[in-house]
Amino acid sequence: QVQLVESGGGSVQAGGSLRLSCRLTGYTYERICMGWFRQAPEKEREGVVIVDRYGETSSVDSVKGRFSVSKDNVKNTLYLQMNNLKPDDTAMYYCAATFDDCALNDANTFPIWGQGTQVTVSS
Fold first, then answer.
1. Confidence of residue 1 (pLDDT cuts 50, 70, 90)
2. Is there a smaller number of Cβ atoms within 10 Å at the N or the C end of the chain?
3. How many CB atoms lie within 10 A of CB 26?
4. DSSP 3-state assignment of 111?
5. C-alpha angle 108-111-114 in degrees, rounded to nearest 5
6. Phi and psi at residue 101, in whole multiples of 5°?
């Protein structure tokens, strides 16, 4: 059974950094699309960044230049490095995965989800 386990959330001041981790278990880390979504209170879930099955990365405009994604294929782990964090980045962050085609702007293309990790940025 494929599972995603996130870690690395926390509370920081604006301008700070955090790194989120998402470990994939139950599957060899190949030909799978994985990504990060976030959801703030009373807002819809938003795609932050995805890495598709061919290694192509897509990210939302609001995080470009601040967030970066990387993979460790040995550890089966996807990382999200978040720099220069802003209060608007405050949300629950979720790791997601699919064996099929995926879309940054469509959470429904991801059938596999982690439990989420909270990121809080204070001004």
1. confident
2. N
3. 10
4. coil
5. 110
6. -65, 150
The β-bridge relationship of strands 10-13 and 117-122 is parallel
Across-strand partners of 101? none
Beta strands in the chain (DSSP E): 3-7, 10-13, 18-25, 33-39, 46-51, 57-59, 67-72, 77-82, 91-98, 112-113, 117-122
Radius of gyration (C-alpha) of the chain in whole angstroms: 13
Structure confidence by residue, pLDDT tens digits, 77-108: 999 999 999 999 999 999 999 999 999 999 99
Q: What is the pLDDT, as a whole number, of residue 76? A: 86
| Distance between CA atoms of residues 99 and 39, nearest Å | 23
What is the per-residue pLDDT for 75? Answer: 85
Tens of pLDDT, residue by residue over 46-85, are 999 999 989 899 999 999 999 999 988 888 899 999 999 9
Amino acid at the residue 73: N
- What are residue 53's phi and psi, to 5 degrees? -65, -15
